[in-house]
Amino acid sequence: MCVWEKLYQAAVQVQNGRTISPFIDAGGVAAALLTKAGNIYVGVCIDTACTLGMCAERNAIANMITNGESQIDKIVAVMPGGKVGPPCGACRESMMQLDKDSGEIEILLDLEQRKTVRLKELLPDWWGKERFFEK
């Protein structure tokens, strides 16, 4: 099984769209990421009435950080219905701020064709790059 299939399956395993309360829905979108150290972390979206929810990608990132890592190699998000999709702007920004090399994070856009894009292609001329090199 290729790494993208493995990540896709890890996300699908936790994807379970459900209503938590009259104010919270969760699990409609799931994400899985592979760290530079070779570990996989997953997360699901948490949509709240007060808009303080969390996307699946940022949930997976929080899981990764909780476990002491901060460098992503690859990431996939699985939408309702099983298709994959790119991260939203907030998730792109969160990933870019993790590490000076985050622009190299590979994002799956199409599972069947194995079409990917690098984060730096989705955020060209990113505003914060110089901060990684300040002393």
Give me some keywords for this one.
single chain, 135 residues, alpha+beta, Cytidine Deaminase, domain 2, seven-stranded mixed beta sheet, 4 helices, 26% helix
Topology record:
Blueprint: H1 3-14, E1 18-21, E2 24-35, E3 40-48, H2 56-66, E4 72-78, E5 84-85, H3 89-96, E6 106-110, E7 115-118, H4 119-122
Parallel strand pairs: 4-6
Antiparallel strand pairs: 1-2, 2-3, 2-4, 4-5, 6-7
Can you describe this structure?
The structure is a single chain. With 135 residues, the chain is of the alpha+beta class. Helices cover 26% and strands 32% of the residues. It contains four helices and seven strands. The chain has helices at 3-14, 56-66, 89-96, 119-122; strands at residues 18-21, 24-35, 40-48, 72-78, 84-85, 106-110, 115-118. Strands 1, 2, 3, 4, 5, 6 and 7 form a seven-stranded mixed sheet that branches.
How big a fraction of the residues is strand? Answer: 25-35%
Query: What is the string of helix and strand elements?
Result: HEEEHEEHEEH
The proportion of residues forming helix, as a percent range, comes to 25-40%
DSSP E strands, number: 7
Shape: globular
How far apart are the first and last residues' alpha carbons, in Å? 43 Å
Q: Any idea what the CATH superfamily is called? A: Cytidine Deaminase, domain 2
Summarize the biggest pleated sheet: 7 strands, mixed
**Structural class per helix/strand content?**
alpha+beta
The total domain count is 1
User: What is the gyration radius calculated from CA atoms?
Assistant: 15 Å
Overall residue-averaged pLDDT value: 96
CATH level 1 name: Alpha Beta
- Uncertain stretches: none
